[in-house]
Amino acid sequence: PTGDTEEVEIPAKPEKIVSTSVTLTGTLLAVDAPVIASGGAKAGPTSDDKGFFSQWAEEADEQGVKALWQLEPDLQKVAAEDPDLIIVSAKGADTAAEQIDELKKIGVPVVVLDYSDKTWGEITTEVGEITGHESEAADAIQSYEDRVAEVKENIGEVDQPVQFALLAADKQSLNIETEESAQGRILSDLGLEINSPSDDLVGDEYKGRA
């Protein structure tokens, strides 16, 4: 599936995947999919100088994943890699959704995934199905669940509820996570109750968002 509107046929198990989404590249690597090139984020405290996220940048280097850009999609670079599958995020800073029509002209399947309303496990399962790596996706999810169980057993008693906040990129504000956010779900999986902010502490532009 690509978004909610279109089915994409993938005639054979892909062997040369280009990911225009740095977020989805991490998932592709997690299921051992053959990603050969990827867009990147901006270099910063959570990514290397290519824009690959720190938690998987070394693995990407070992697999020979080529860095194509940093949040500025270049369709000629995608075509030059001669991919047999192109992965695109529907939303987020790393989306190339506006270039879908041009990407399709490359002549290979283009799959658009929306990770904004799914858990990482749901996206991992979906990527596994798309790439023919279902068993590897299941293994990745099981590895996470095993690690959660291990950590949960070792963290001991914690005063609850907890407040979870991350310093925003502008270093002038805080992103206070809820149990619906990707980060908050991890704490929930660990058995922690998250204390979400009251409405009077949330800016109007963020109300209703996780």
N- to C-terminal distance = 25 Å
Helix content: 25-40%
Could you give the count of β-strands? 7
Principal-axis shape:
globular
The major pleated sheet works out as: 5 strands, parallel
Question: What count of helical segments does DSSP give?
Answer: 7
> Biggest sheet: strands side by side, in what order?
3-2-1-4-5
Strand content: 5-15%
Rg of Cα set: 18 Å
Low-confidence parts lasting 5 or more residues at pLDDT below 50?
206-210
Q: Give the mean pLDDT.
A: 87
How do the helices and strands follow one another from N- to C-terminus? Answer: EHEHEHEHEHHEEH
Structural class: alpha/beta
Could you describe the 3D structure shown?
This protein has helices spanning 22-30, 54-63, 75-80, 100-104, 120-131, 134-154, 182-189, and strands at 17-19, 35-40, 66-70, 85-89, 110-113, 165-167, 174-176. The chain has 210 residues and is of the alpha/beta class. The strands form two sheets. Strands 3-2-1-4-5 form a five-stranded parallel β-sheet. A two-stranded antiparallel sheet has the order 6-7. Helix 5 (120-131) packs antiparallel against helix 6. The radius of gyration is 18 Å and the shape is globular.
